[in-house]
Amino acid sequence: MKNILFLLLAISIVSCKKSEKKEEATKPKVKLYQLVGGSILVKKLEVFSQDTAYTGKTKQFADAYYVISHPKGNLMWDAGLPEQLVMPEPYNEPSGVYAIRRPDSLVNQLKSIGFKIGDFKYFAMSHSHFDHTGHANLMKDATWIVQENEYNSVAGDSAKVKNPAVAALKNVQKIKGDFDVFGDGTVVIKYTPGHTIGHQALYVEVAGLEKPVLLTGDLYHFEENRANKGVPSFNYDVKQTIESMDSFEAFAKEKNAEVIIQHSPVAFEKLEKLLKK
């Protein structure tokens, strides 16, 4: 009897291992590219807190956007700063909070990795703030995947003020909640409202990496924000932001994901190293 049980257990283990190998072999090869959408010097860091914790402090932010290449089509995630900011010196915007510039155009940056604007089937943004919508209108031939409530707030008929940064985007796919972009679990938009009404993050299973990548959007802006659950003063909803942080962290743990804070220069360098392996 013991021999039979041992044999059944051995067969079960072998079967599981074969199944895992088959699943790995059939997984689509997804590539991820990280590009520079701008440089942001935050001169008044206190706006990134609900209190006076950062009063008098400054911080350098990255502003990345991403290309995800999938056998079923390409997705661009986020759009950096406006291309008018491609200039030698940073622009000090009127509020006095930011000094901003963009290093290069979308066309030039895509060319550096072998892509053209017309190569994209999908376009999505974490949210609709100015540092994520910079070249959005250039993606007019792609399908814009956006949370329905975010769309309504910036481009819908009910929007009090329509955002001109997305005015050219007419091919729209409105979603509600999490969305599996290619239907195979490799690229999933995660609904994380709070920073804006329809803020979202992105999960990507990148071929060749030990861990999947989880892009935060602006759920967090820097490492201390994540550690302390810091919420910027200008967030749409504080309570909702905290709830999204909790659900995001639970998902990150479940997937053993590499969390990349999109505005963090540290995270930018970390992902660059991972992608070059």
UniProtKB/TrEMBL annotation:
InterPro entries: MBL_superfamily_lactonases, Metallo-B-lactamas, RibonucZ/Hydroxyglut_hydro
PROSITE patterns reported for this sequence: PROKAR_LIPOPROTEIN
Highest taxon of source: Bacteria
Keywords for the protein's UniProt record, in alphabetical order: Hydrolase, Metal-binding, Zinc
Domain Metallo-beta-lactamase: 61-263
Pfam families: Lactamase_B (PF00753)
Molecular function as annotated in GO: hydrolase activity; metal ion binding
Family designation: Belongs to the metallo-beta-lactamase superfamily.
Listed name of the protein: MBL fold metallo-hydrolase
Taxonomic source organism: Polaribacter filamentus
